[in-house]
Amino acid sequence: MDDSAELLLRRAISALAQVDPLITLLHQVRQGRLDPANEGLRAVTETWLKTYEQAVTMERLTGLALRRLDPSPRVAVLVEAGVLAADHQGVRRLFAAFRRAEATLGE
User: Fold this and answer.
1) N or C end of the chain: smaller count of CB under 10 Å?
2) How many domains are contained in the chain?
3) What angle do helix axes 89-106 and 39-56 make, rounded to 10 degrees?
4) pTM (whole model) above 0.70
5) Roughly what angle, to the nearest 10 degrees, separates helices 72-80 and 89-106?
6) Cα dist. 78→11, 62, 65, 92 in Å?
């Protein structure tokens, strides 16, 4: 991966880390201290989904960088914890954007 692609990937990861509900809130949900339907958690999760969608659609991402940004593992954890539904509109949009980005790289 060249330096500009690595820098782009680092920016995407940094943007995601700033709004990532997995980092700060999921532990509280698992311990029962935070309801998965909490409005604040929902707002953070919606922001995270939108930011993730923007990250995977960044121009000049390499195939390796895109694979590192694969949202599947994180979405699976959120679905398992009851924070998101697998058929949530934002989840569908994120996966559609990810598939489009993969298809673009495959051309």
Assistant:
1) C
2) 1
3) 10
4) yes
5) 160
6) 23, 26, 22, 14
